[in-house]
Amino acid sequence: MSRPSRHARSLSDSSAPAPAAPPPPRAPRRTAAPRKRGRPAAAAPPPSHAPPPAAPSSTSGGVALHLSSRSGTGYKKVYYRPKSEPTPYVPEDEYGLPLGRFATAEEAAVCFARYVAGDISVRGQPVRVLQGNGLSGRHARWLLECDGGGEPMWVAPPSVPAPLLEAFLREERVAFNTALVGDLRQSSAACAVDEELAAACAAFLQEHWRDRGLQLGGQYVTGYASYGKTLQPQDAAEQSRHTLLLGPLLIQSAREHLPGFHQMEQQLTAWLENRHNTKFELYFAHGLRQGPSTLRSTSFDVHQDNEDYDFIEHTIVVKLTPDLTGEPPSAMQVVGAEPVSYAPNAGAAIHFRAALHHTSLAPQSDREHLKIAFFFRVRSRDDKRRRAR
């Protein structure tokens, strides 16, 4: 019990204080629900209000169907969507993408079974690809329109005819390239470094570049073996022999020990900065052997040069070795633009935006050539401060 205040005692008629009233009972303490750790549970599919099937069929038209006792429709990955009447039955793939809409659960189950088996004949002949899901490899799905009617259907790559997929991808890439640079006739530009610098670099590489790599001072430079976008199916061992990966940590060794490299870098940086009125710096580079025997390793199919580092803005590829008189030139192509060829002299170079979809063109010459691809990024303020120290 607490003592009464002086003010309370002075107003009291009695010398003994009156007992204090008991405090009101406390409200029960609210406790928070225990927090669940880990990833949130995936959202459950909308409830199915489909009329229960009398007896789901295990086959239909010779197609084995996938039954499920936990599905409201009786079929695996087939859902009832009331808002989709009169075709409320929707089969979905493993990513939750709809494969079509059907009037009956059995028809939807047939569609799902054919999808699993890679068979889309139920929808007729494919007409065109409308959309991709943005994934690659076995996870890729394509929205395919067929001439059998009905809504387009998401299918796996084996079900998409190659000509239709190539046409769709080309259309997408041309649209992307056009949005990036506007006039595709201006998508690449010829430039050059001093011929003597390129020749000195080529001579050093021809003498010291072995199948296992290149010794630069106290460091050993090797190639890469995991880039699969080649004109012919990739050969990893061959790619490792014919590439040099000069990453950010090895660039300084190349500047100090690879003849002509630093001077070529300086000339290209100055050309790039003058052209774009922006400060750039070299972030990494690739050494390449290219010839008719390297279609599985260093002749590259359609790709972008900022796939690994999205901050790479510009690519300049320098041909270190000269062409012989009458020799067919090396060439490349930005998707949607005309092919461009390297000039015949050592030091000839081609510049383009790194994000552009582009491809090597198969060499027409029997000779091997050496090239270095220089990849530039915009120089940041932090880089400027670091250089000033």
Give the termini distance in whole angstroms. 71 Å
Helix/strand-derived category reads alpha+beta
Q: Major β-sheet, in short?
A: 6 strands, antiparallel
What is the β-strand count? 18
Element pattern in H and E: HEEEEHEEEHEHEEHEHHEEEEEEEH
Write out the strand line-up for the largest beta sheet, numbering strands in chain order: 8-16-13-18-12-11
Mean pLDDT reading: 86
Which descriptor suits the 3D outline? elongated
Give start-end ranges of low-pLDDT stretches: 1-16, 38-43
Over the alpha carbons, how many angstroms does the gyration radius reach? 34 Å
Oligomer: single chain
Q: How many H/I helices? A: 8
As a percent range, the share of strand residues is 15-25%
Helix content: 10-25%
Organism: Prymnesium parvum
Biased composition (Pro residues): 43-55
Region (Disordered): 1-67
Protein name: Prolyl 4-hydroxylase alpha subunit Fe(2+) 2OG dioxygenase domain-containing protein
Please give a structural write-up.
The strands form 6 sheets. The chain has a 6-stranded antiparallel beta sheet. The chain has a 3-stranded antiparallel beta sheet with strand order 5-6-7. A 3-stranded antiparallel beta sheet has the order 15-14-17, with no helix packed on it. Residues 1-16 and 38-43 have low confidence and may be disordered. A hairpin with a 5-residue loop joins strand 14 and strand 15. The protein is an alpha+beta fold. It has helices at residues 6-10, 105-117, 162-181, 195-208, 236-241, 251-257, 261-276, 381-388, and strands at residues 59-60, 63-64, 78-80, 89-91, 126-132, 142-146, 153-155, 188-192, 214-216, 219-221, 243-246, 280-290, 312-319, 331-334, 340-341, 348-353, 358-360, 369-378. This is Prolyl 4-hydroxylase alpha subunit Fe(2+) 2OG dioxygenase domain-containing protein. It comes from Prymnesium parvum (Toxic golden alga). Residues 27-39 have a biased composition (Basic residues). Residues 1-67 are annotated as: Disordered.
